[in-house]
Amino acid sequence: MRVTLAPLLSALLALTGCQVITDDGVAPDRARLITDMTAQLQRAASYRYHAEYLLAGGAKGAISQQTGPARTVFAYPGGRLVVDSGGHTSCVTAVRPARCQVRPLPSAGPAELTGYTEVTKHGLVTAPVVTGLLQAAQLQSQADVEAFDATLAGRQATCLEVSGLTDADAGGFTVCVTAEGVLASFSGVVGGVSVDQSLLRVTGAPPASVFDLPDGARVTDHRPRTPAP
């Protein structure tokens, strides 16, 4: 069932003669939808899973996560990003031997999405990027939000269609998230890249091999060295 919020809110305002908004000017129903989906995405951090995706042009991608220790791998055509407590390891696998670069975890702020933005350039959107777009929609009262349900890869998913964004990496997008918080689908143009991502299958136990660096990879570590005592 698809629910269009803008007409419902307009009818409500006409009947009551007052404007139903939060302190920042955002309609409360819309704010709740965005907040709920943001929390839903964060929920996935407590699960182990391996999700495979169909990307634009028929390419394949995958997101694998384990919880002890916490590690997430984003695999896309020609590369991959590994995120753990030690930093971000980005690898180019389209060359032989593969080349990997290790960088410290970015500080909070715009730079926090640097590694994930690189993944987006290859057609795979990640939860941190989606969260950033949802936050932008939360702050922009002119943005329209529609909610609906869908079934993807046999999983029930909650979806939002967002349009009318300005000063954001995407002017609009459609995103679906499973009850467990796994990203089920995403479509939109993000940072000039057309993304069409749909869940093919998801399992609860990622293969251990997905967390290994490519065989023979040349690794450059950009993390600051700890001075010897």
How many H/I helical runs? 4
Report the CATH topology name. outer membrane lipoprotein receptor (LolB), chain A
Termini separation (Å)? 63 Å
CATH second-level architecture:
Clam
Q: Order of helices and strands, N to C?
A: EHHEEEEEEHHEEEEEE
Question: Could you estimate the helical fraction of the residues in percent?
Answer: 10-25%
> What topology, given as strand order, has the largest sheet?
1-8-9-10-11-12-2-3-4-5-6-7-13
Count of separate structural domains: 1
Shape: globular
Category by helix and strand content: alpha+beta
Largest sheet: 13 strands, mixed
CATH superfamily: Lipoprotein localisation LolA/LolB/LppX
Detail the poorly predicted runs.
Answer: 1-23
Write down the CATH class. Answer: Mainly Beta
Q: Compute the CA-based radius of gyration.
A: 19 Å
Strand content: 35-45%
Tally of strands:
13
Would you tell me the overall average pLDDT? 86
How does this structure look, described?
Helix 2 runs antiparallel to helix 4 (127-139). The chain has helices at residues 5-16, 28-43, 114-120, 127-139, and strands at residues 3-4, 49-54, 60-67, 70-76, 79-84, 87-92, 99-103, 144-152, 155-163, 173-178, 183-190, 193-203, 218-221. It has 229 residues and is α+β, with helices and mostly antiparallel strands. The model is unreliable at 1-23 (pLDDT under 50). The protein has a single domain (3-221), classed as Clam (outer membrane lipoprotein receptor (LolB), chain A). A hairpin with a 2-residue loop joins strand 11 and strand 12 (193-203).
